[in-house]
């Protein structure tokens, strides 16, 4: 008996990731006929599921064209150009199935797959193990109840544990400055203190990571601005204090160190991509809009703000919506309206007319776009805000980020505890994927906001509900 395994793919795996065919290394992949039938039912339309169904069908067709006479014996998967796939693709060519308990209907697609897996498990034909791979928890539970091996599809997961995700900051231990004091260099430049450290501590740092040194009397916040791996050494720069009224951003000041660093990232034109993670009420949207409006209206670094989000309803869908693209998106943009009301509210002597004029001017600089029409576009000198980014897949995230043209800044915000997209988890979310892949790029910044600032009621609800 060989050490090779045979993995039977459920339809939802191919609909989630068409390249899953090539993600099983030296092991073989088995496709039930019912999987092809279900894929055929999903291939019509412009959704990501339909696109994935068509792409998976193309991959299978390419393999069949390479070896049309090897359907049952197995087609080498590397023939499609994926050299890491050293196994074979096998297609069900007979209707051999094992009997299931009477409570499981033979007509249901999931049960037909289970009956096939049971037959293959009882007749392994030289394989060390036969296992079902599915994103559907229920079919995996039924398989285990029948004594059949069943696994989730893990290849799309960036991290097994979301607690291991890069947070964007680190607390300095009490001995940090003692370890680095003998070779420490410091100087002032453009009103900010700079420090150069050398040695093991410098090796572990990442570009634009926040170093936080807190004690009873003061808090030092420093950003890693450059790293020299040949020395090794790193240069730290103290961050701007946005908690002071003189440094307010569109009338907004930071209320904690997380918000302060978020504003440092958002207001830095050298950082092209910013990701903000945090629970509800941590200020992600308000800070981002304040920074965007300041840089569009006052500093004129960008000529327009574009805001988009994934339209996944929390409850029942409200059906089709009338109007233009922007009018259709308005019901999803309640957070935008709430925060604009805060930013454009003024207690000065201008009165209601001045507030209305300010609101009109601000809204003229903000365009709300649907994520469904982003493919093929290029945004030049825009400030692009992606809200609820945790509901994006890694493929959708790549599509969005590659829309950036010259002079465009992208901010992705989200809460990994509020994922509404089917088959996505904290480990496989496109937002997790983005943070993990970009975390040491010099023009990327990230911070996980810890402290809620919405209200004492909201803060208590987050902690106890």
Automatic annotation (TrEMBL):
One Pfam assignment: PIN_4
Gene3D superfamilies (UniProt xref): 5'-nuclease (3.40.50.1010), P-loop containing nucleotide triphosphate hydrolases (3.40.50.300)
Ranges where the PIN domain occurs: 5-141
InterPro entries listed in its UniProt record: P-loop_NTPase (IPR027417), PhoH (IPR003714), PhoH2-like (IPR051451), PIN-like_dom_sf (IPR029060), PIN_dom (IPR002716)
Keywords recorded for this protein, A-Z: ATP-binding, Nucleotide-binding
Family: In the N-terminal section; belongs to the PINc/VapC protein family. Belongs to the PhoH family.
Protein's name in the database: PhoH family protein
Organism encoding this protein: Vitreoscilla stercoraria
